[in-house]
Amino acid sequence: MAEHACPHREKSRLTARERRLAHRRRMQDVAKLRCPWCGERFETLVDASGGGADYVEDCPVCCRPIEMHLAVDHDGIRLDAGRED
Ligand SMILES: [Zn+2]
Question: How many Å lie between the centroid of ligand 1 and the Cα of residue 47?
Fold first, then answer.
């Protein structure tokens, strides 16, 4: 009788574990930013698995190179867009 596992309990345990794993692995996120060239807003996928980074990504609207400054801290991911002069 005691062998009968409660399905609810098992499920909630699994979900909590999955949530924790998902949180730890949440190194990819969608950042919203504004193109410093044309002013259009767009979303881009950032990969923060390697920590902060500087890289260049072309604007999906005007195709000009945007300097991305990716910062990772305990609050999450922060992405700043700049333009090279
Ligand atoms: Zn643009």
Answer: 21
